[in-house]
Input
Amino acid sequence: MTLVMKFGGTSVGSSEAIRRTGNIISEAQSDWKDVVVIASAMNGVTDLLTQGALSASAGENENYRDISDSIRRRHYQVISELMPTIADGQQLTIELDHLIERFESLCKAVLVLGELSPRAMDAITSLGERMSVRLLAAYLRHQKLPAQAVDASGLIITDETFQAAMPLTDQTAKRCRSILCPLLDQGNVAVVTGFIGATQEGVITTLGRGGSDYSAAIVGRALEAEQVWIWTDVDGVMTADPRLVSNALTIEQLSYREVAELAFYGAKVLHPRTIRPIIENDIPLWIKNTFNPHAPGTEITRQPREDNGKIKAVTAIRQLSLINVEGKGMLGVPGIAARTFGAVAQVQVSVLLISQASSEQSICFAVPADSTQDVIDALEAEFNAELDRRDVDRIWAQEDVAIVTVVGAGMRGTPGIAGRLFSSLGNHPVNIIAIAQGSSECSISIVVEGKDTANAEQAIHKLIVNF
Ligand code: ADP
Ligand code: ASP
Ligand code: MG
Output
């Protein structure tokens, strides 16, 4: 019986948080045969490491040194508060100093070269998790709980897509078993770095920002864990982003599909890639609150027990552009869509939503705002001849739009939901620019102007609360 528990940045972000996290781990250790902990960097540390790297690449000599001082202080403060006298403390400070020196020397190399490659960025940003797991494992040992820090660079073997690496499933499973099982068999809690992996050659990669959730799912799949629990700073997945909608409620149960749609469309509570390894092994996933551990949390399974035709949650992604390819000459011409998305793929931009009018006279799709010009340039090059012939009339971007997505598997086959949704938006009033329904039919996404986003979220949330 293996339990994988992931603790996010706030759950390891202070002495008080680490104390709570330690209590949760020790309780789990008495209930489960094997406990694997995945830990994020202390909150804010990955941002600091990133800033340090960027400022070094911009030629600033001082900034990264200030950053390394503040990262050192954050960790040392916890050591002095939680384990002022232990022998472990000495070994721990040697290891932390070594990692902080590594940060400085990597930044110095970036400064000298004046160049920051994705590979260097991963080496630098990986350091936060490498520090936090050592700190947490030392604290657990201090609490008389056998624990061992493990760098996932030896466990999660990935491709070479730095900053968004994908795991190689079989090799990762083998490594996880051969390295973690002996540790667990000896009665240790394994405390593994979230967020990071390494290529087959051993070069450090990261799974993308927020990727520690994904690490937990990858290790859960590799070890065939019974359950994966994600510990964070809210009571579970909520009906809306609690930072934006003050009366958001915790959702008791969700399906894998629903939570996948929520995560894909911007709900920060879970990294969007987390669900795939979880689905493949049908692992029950829980989202729980480190700061309110006895709250029930959100249970995520293939088929939740009750599904009563509800809209369950609303989420939004801001700062997008809607790209339009228009032309009467496109009507019935095969291959326009394929060429459009081929051109977008070539500039490595991912499309978040597509909508095509049935007349085929226009295709529109949403992309992150910062890639707008790249996408327009790629499309103009691709359709150069069609633009000349006027088969394609116009390629243009509507800037500053957002996608607002409503999620709930029960919407499928429940008549009238879309009607209520659109009339509530109409009443607020929110102007709808485009609409798309998720292929799994458990989400409807609406494109609105940036300025209408909060209004749209609140209107839909009212509907959820009053359902
Ligand atoms: P962690 O560091 O634990 O991974 P994150 O900050 O990545 O935590 O994710 C948790 C945060 O996600 C919450 O504090 C909350 O502000 C935000 N959030 C956004 N949308 C939702 C939602 N629908 N349900 C719960 N939390 C959400
Ligand atoms: N520390 C990483 C980040 O801040 C990964 C994570 O917290 O999930 O993005
Ligand atoms: Mg997170």
The pocket of adenosine-5'-diphosphate (ligand 1) is lined by residues 8-10, 40, 210, 232-234, 237-238, 240-243, 267-269, 313, 315 (CB under 6 Å). DSSP finds 15 helices and 16 strands in the chain. The longest strand covers residues 313-326. The radius of gyration is 24 Å.
